[in-house]
Design brief:
Elements: E1 3-4, E2 8-12, H1 18-25, H2 40-57, E3 62-66, E4 72-79, E5 90-95, H3 104-118, E6 124-129, H4 134-142, E7 146-151, E8 156-162
Antiparallel strand pairs: 1-2, 2-3, 3-4, 4-5, 6-8, 7-8
Helix pairs in contact: 1-2
Pfam family, one: Acetyltransf_3
Domain N-acetyltransferase: 8-164
InterPro entries: Acyl_CoA_acyltransferase (IPR016181), GNAT_dom (IPR000182), N-acetyltransferase (IPR051531)
């Protein structure tokens, strides 16, 4: 099911989306605050793992398109990480550097929180951000997340959002 926000179209990721996603997910500098994928094959594997989770749990990161021109500009949303399980359902987002500072991550975060609360009826969400990634920390705080604790082995703050219905 596609979700439309004011400026974004969020839809399940297709295999044909991966090369466009790799243009930024494979950029070590752009993804310096998170993991990046050195090869297109690694990116395909990662996306496929998340899509398997969508079939199993009902959520996985969406391909994010700009509604004005249809361009793929990001990947993100709700997921339970198949590669690092045990944290519960998380919010994550990864955007092309050309879109940074536009408010797209905040728009995605608000839509994701609503989806988690209204459709999935989750009691809470989690998210991670490196303390020096000021923009991402601000996105999470604006969306209602609060720092729960610092996780030294991940070098990230763990955020929590208790969802009220």
């Amino acid at each position: 099911m596609d979700i439309l926000t004011e400026r974004l179209s969020l839809r399940p990721t297709k295999a044909s989306d991966v090369p466009a996603l790799f243009s930024f997910l494979g950029d070590a500098q752009a993804m310096r605050h998170t993991a990046y994928f050195a090869t297109l094959r690694a990116c395909r594997r990662h996306v496929a793992g998340h899509e398997w989770q969508r079939r199993r749990l009902g959520c996985a990161p969406w391909t994010v398109r700009n509604r004005s021109d249809g361009a793929i500009i990001g990947w993100g949303g709700l997921f339970e990480d198949p590669f690092d399980p045990g944290w519960g359902v998380e919010l994550g987002y990864w955007f092309a550097p050309s879109t940074w500072g536009t408010g797209y991550a905040s728009e995605l975060a608000v839509a994701s929180v609503a989806e988690a609360r209204d459709r999935l009826r989750l009691p809470e969400l989690r998210a991670f951000a490196r303390p020096d990634n000021v923009g991402s920390c601000r996105v999470l705080e604006k969306a209602g997340f609060a720092i729960e604790r610092y996780v030294p082995e991940l070098e990230r703050n763990l955020y929590r959002h208790a969802l009220e219905r």
